Amino acid sequence: MINAQGMMLSVLEQDYFVSYNRVPWLRDARISSALNVRMAGPNAIEWPELDIDLEIDSLKHPERYPLVMKHSPLDAI
């Protein structure tokens, strides 16, 4: 299921809601790219077309993985 807030994802027989607030790179992705998700080892998933990797633990416990944006010295002031 994909809607305006995010998408449902089944991983290792568990269902998770992946919010665009938590993974904003999925918000503007083509549906075909968002649905192209696969296991990346025993503890992670990846969207190869979107260059996104997530640990499965971050789906189970999103509170342990706050989104932090760091400024680069190259950012315009």
What is this entry, summarized?
The chain has one domain (6-64).
Would you kindly provide a written description of the structure presented here, covering whatever features stand out?
By secondary structure, this protein is an alpha+beta fold. The protein has one domain (6-64). Helix content is 13%, strand content 29%. The strands form two sheets. The chain has a three-stranded antiparallel sheet. The protein has a two-stranded antiparallel sheet with strand order 1-2. A hairpin with a 4-residue loop joins strand 4 (44-47) and strand 5.
Could you list some keywords that capture this structure?
77 residues; alpha+beta; two-stranded antiparallel ribbon; 2 helices; 5 strands
Task: Give the percentage of residues in beta strands.
Answer: 25-35%
Q: What is the helical fraction, as a range of percent? A: 10-25%
Largest sheet: 3 strands, antiparallel
Question: What is the mean pLDDT?
Answer: 88
Q: How many domains make up the 3D coordinates?
A: 1
The unreliable regions are none
Strand order of the largest sheet: 3-4-5
Form type: globular
What is the structural class? alpha+beta
How do the strands and helices of this protein lay out in sequence?
Blueprint: E1 6-11, E2 14-19, H1 31-35, E3 38-39, E4 44-47, E5 52-55, H2 56-60
Antiparallel strand pairs: 1-2, 3-4, 4-5
